Every structure is written in structure tokens, then in C-alpha cells.
Amino acid sequence: MPLGRVKWYSLEKGFGFIESEEGADVYLASSALPAGIATVKPGTKLEFGVIEGKKGPQAMTVRLIDEPASVVANNRINHDDLATMIEDTIKILDKVGNGLRHGRHPSGPDAERLAKVLRGIAGQFES
After folding, report:
1. Residues of the chain falling short of pLDDT 70
2. How far is CA 104 from CA 95, 112, 116, 121, in A?
3. In sequence order, what E strands does 1-127 have?
4. Residue 25: helix, strand or coil by DSSP?
5. pTM over 0.70
6. Distance CA 64, CA 45 (A)
7. CA–CA separation, 42 vs 17, rounded Å?
8. Which run of H or of E encompasses 20?
9. How many CB atoms lie within 10 A of CB 63?
């Protein structure tokens, strides 16, 4: 299985990219992350399978190998960053709430993405 490091990942968008050891960028969807992992930090070393997606290589069955030295389990993120995440989440929830008032439930992928964002924020308060 190929190895690489997380180039960037957005919890809110639900995807990011891995820079493989071969030098290619590989798409990383949130659905490819291991169970219980909502996000990954840049620099995290990963092992992953690759399939050819519509727009290029896509990671599947991702396994975390090594996190950057600066990342420690249960470490809180910067207060300003957390405040920004919460403000952005409020905007998302407001949009979802308005949709629900009009009988529109979020689609499966949108609902999954929202749930991951909420779990990520909850994890910051639990740590």
C-alpha cells in the first residue's frame, strides 16, 4: 500500500489531499478515514489504498501511521480557531434549520459532514 503525508484537510469541507511518496496528490474524502477519526492534521503519515476516481487518484482504506510531533491526543486547538469554527458551524446549522422549516432534510453526505464537524467541536470541549 502507498504511503504519504496529509497535505491539507478541511473538517468543514469533509476532504483534503495526501502527498504520496511518489509525489502525486491523492484526494482524501472523510469517508476514507478510519472509524472514529473525524479529521487529520497536515503532516500526518498515512498508509492508503488508491483507486482512480473521476478527477484522479483517490485514497481508500486509510490507516494512520504517524502523527506530527506537535499533535498530541486530546490537545485543544487555539481559542481563536475554535471560536471561528463555532461561528462557521452556527452559520451551517442556521442554513440546515431553515431547510428543515421548509421540509428539507440535509442529504446523506451533507448530514454526515455536519455530524463530523459537530463531533470535532465536541471533542475540543471534552479534551
Report:
1. 68-76, 127
2. 11, 15, 20, 25
3. 3-10, 15-20, 25-29, 45-53, 56-66
4. strand
5. no
6. 6
7. 9
8. strand 15-20
9. 13
For residues 30 and 106, what is the distance between their CA atoms, to the nearest angstrom? 17
C-alpha cell at 44: 500526518
β-pair type (45-53, 3-10): antiparallel
Secondary structure class of 62 (helix, strand, coil)? strand
Q: Specify whether the CB–CB gap between 2 and 50 falls below 8 A.
A: yes
pLDDT score recorded for residue 58: 95
The residues, ordered by sequence, that sit 6+ positions from 92 with a Cβ below 8 Å of its Cβ are: 12, 114, 117
The C-alpha cell 483534503 sits at 16
> Would you state the pLDDT for residue 72?
44
Cβ atoms within 10 Å, residue 77: 15
User: In degrees rounded to 5, what are phi and psi of residue 118?
Assistant: -65, -40
Spatial distance between the Cα atoms of 24 and 97, rounded to a whole number of angstroms: 40
> Rounded to whole angstroms, how far apart are CA atoms 25 and 14?
17
Cell of 54: 473521476
